[in-house]
């Protein structure tokens, strides 16, 4: 009997749901427009508020910092490339930011995340928005990887690089009834070839925050932003157009020589192919900050990508056929001559990051003391904001 009931539900529920949705769509759209208008009228005033932005040295993180600066917020800029953060700080001040604190840290390290949050509380006394923008994409078929050494690093940056800062900041965000803003990607529900590991990591990020939303209830807001193809500065933070995996800042010459001598099997094209609905980084950053200040649970740009949710749920074969048709005519990516694989280009970096300022005497979050002169292990290469 149970098997018959399940088979009947499988047959009836999907088409019935589609019919109900078709009839309810106009009403739902009207209610959504009213909700948007109400939120726009009661948008959060960010003047004097404290916003912590990870991955703020370039791309999406940098532009998000500028959008908050235009709203008069106090900023905490976090990245490994401290020299880049100083330039971003000056630009943010020119745009209207209040106080701007620069913190050199690696968000993949839990102790760094505890320290940067404690420094924020020590300096400002509060935290209102945490914006996680760290991201690292790739452009190779799964079988082309050859060496699996970088697999954990992609997960570290794209998943743990969001989770650790959130874990450290959550007690303070509860106190201020603040908000976590997450930079995800359309690849979480519209997987694209050559981005298998990136898509998996971003899907984990979205599921984590959608679950966390119900755990924190109304005490802390969560805005999950997903983007499609974004044009602009190639590099970390966009998940698209990243052409190099830089060495950990502070790595010695021996580490750089060893990494450069490895078999070159990973690379990306220096430019991303244009795609329909592409947008500038500045546009996306503006939409993210606007949505966060309105209190939106989700921000999607471009919005028309949402239609693929329906196809994936009710007609996945159609989506699969479409991809096969489009990708069958796509040009083959460049490869390394004589290997058939794509090469990893290791970019040397500048001077080691400066030490963090001293933590408060009695921080609300306990964390281990920083180890002076700590040198990254060989397994911790390939990280960037």
Automatic annotation (TrEMBL):
Main location, first listed in the record: membrane
Keywords: NADP, Oxidoreductase
Domain of life according to the entry: Eukaryota
Matches recorded under InterPro entries: NAD(P)-bd_dom_sf, Sc_DH/Rdtase_CS, SDR_fam
Membrane topology, record value: Single-pass type II membrane protein
NADP recorded as keyword: yes
A Pfam family assignment: adh_short
Entry GO MF terms: oxidoreductase activity
A GO cellular-component term linked to this record: membrane
PROSITE patterns, alphabetized: ADH_SHORT (PS00061)
Protein localization: Membrane
Similarity remark: Belongs to the short-chain dehydrogenases/reductases (SDR) family.
Protein name: Hydroxysteroid 11-beta-dehydrogenase 1-like protein
Organism, scientific name: Aegilops tauschii subsp. strangulata
């Amino acid at each position: 009997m149970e098997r018959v009931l399940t088979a009947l539900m499988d047959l009836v529920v999907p088409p019935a749901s589609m019919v109900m949705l078709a009839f309810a769509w106009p009403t739902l759209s009207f209610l959504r427009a009213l909700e948007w208008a109400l939120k726009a009228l009661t948008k959060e005033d960010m003047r004097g508020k404290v916003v912590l932005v990870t991955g703020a040295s370039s791309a999406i993180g940098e532009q998000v910092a500028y959008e908050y600066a235009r709203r008069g917020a106090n900023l905490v800029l976090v990245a490994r490339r401290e020299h880049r953060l100083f330039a971003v700080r000056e630009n943010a001040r020119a745009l209207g930011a209040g106080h701007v604190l620069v913190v050199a840290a690696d968000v993949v390290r839990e102790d760094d995340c505890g320290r940067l949050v404690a420094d924020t509380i020590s300096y400002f006394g509060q935290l209102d928005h945490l914006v996680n923008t760290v991201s690292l994409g790739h452009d190779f078929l799964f079988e082309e990887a050859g060496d699996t050494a970088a697999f954990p690093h992609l997960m570290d940056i794209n998943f743990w690089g969001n989770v650790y800062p959130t874990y450290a900041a959550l007690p303070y965000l509860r106190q201020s009834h603040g908000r976590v803003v997450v930079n995800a990607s359309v690849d979480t529900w519209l997987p694209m070839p050559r981005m298998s590991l990136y898509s998996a990591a971003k899907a984990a990020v979205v599921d984590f925050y959608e679950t966390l939303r119900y755990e924190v209830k109304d005490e802390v807001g969560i805005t999950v932003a997903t983007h499609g193809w974004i044009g602009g500065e190639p590099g970390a933070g966009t998940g698209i157009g990243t052409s190099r995996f830089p060495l950990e800042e502070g790595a010695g010459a021996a580490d750089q020589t060893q990494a450069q001598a490895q078999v070159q099997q990973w690379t990306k094209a220096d430019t991303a192919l244009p795609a329909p609905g592409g947008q500038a980084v500045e546009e996306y950053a503006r939409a993210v900050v606007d949505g966060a200040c309105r209190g939106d649970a989700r921000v999607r740009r471009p919005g028309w990508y949402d239609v693929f949710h329906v196809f994936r749920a009710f007609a996945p074969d159609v989506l699969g056929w479409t991809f096969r048709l489009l990708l069958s005519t796509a040009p083959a990516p460049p490869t390394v001559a004589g290997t058939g694989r794509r090469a990893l280009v290791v970019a040397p970096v500048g001077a080691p990051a400066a030490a963090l300022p001293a933590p408060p005497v009695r921080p609300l979050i306990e964390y281990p003391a920083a180890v002076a002169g700590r040198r990254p292990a060989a397994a911790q290469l390939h990280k960037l904001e």
